[in-house]
User: Fold this.
Amino acid sequence: MARDEIAVEGPLMREPESPRDSLEDLTDSFMPEERQATTPSAFIWSLSFAAGISGILFGYDPLASILADKLGRRYVVLVADVLFAVGASWQAFTGSVTGMIVGRSVVGLAIGGASLVAPLYISELSPSEFRGMLVTLSILFITCGQVIAYVLGYVLAQKAHGWRWMVGLGAVPAFLQFGLLMILPETPRWLVQAGKEDIARLVLMKVYASENSTAGDKVLRDIRREIREQEATSKILNPPSSGNDPWPSLTQFQHRMTELLYVGGNRRALIIACMLQGLQQLCGFVGPRF
Assistant:
């Protein structure tokens, strides 16, 4: 019991009193026993695997895609903000490595959902002439956030328990975004899919800042047409299955993959996205960054 209290009160790593102390501690840490280690232990492998789950969640979150279609894009981003705030706060107050992994995994889940749905929310809510600029601006915000995190990390590294502030301050943008989203509407496309065309028309009038409904009605007709075409294509590629299907979730996944690979627009978007991600990693920025 006393050991647990000490673990909670103390940091996960002792803050060095000066850069020289940090260098001496680092030099002293290379013990002969550690030099003899040639492969990571099973504990290190399991620790790395558990922490790496956050990276998987960052790259792909199928749950967020399903919830975005069922409940709305705005709802998923709000949930991601709550998870991010909870995960960041958990990391700031934890006193164990296990608690750090749990908090990091929750943050990874939030990042996975937000990184998938936030660009979708912006693109569906933006006028077509500004859509590309606004989505690109959201990516720019991510880069600016990384720069700010590096600067804060450098400043707080010299403070006692500064690492707690480093991870805890991540909850601030989540709270800010949550408050702003509370006054923002759902996307017109999702509203039309949900049968709420009257609300979608009001949202479009706000988006285009027009007293008359001409622009909003035109966009609304385009959305209806796109949804009908999407549903028709889905029926052709994915004929209805019999009621004796023992694995409906697997069948739904196969239908989604079929639409992704065999619909021309989806396939081109997938190729472009994979090429951009590959070129981003192959350009060599990851090494200097870490």
Notes: Residues 1-11, 13-27, 29-34, 51-60 have pLDDT under 50 and may be disordered. Residues 115 and 142 are 10 Å apart (CA to CA).
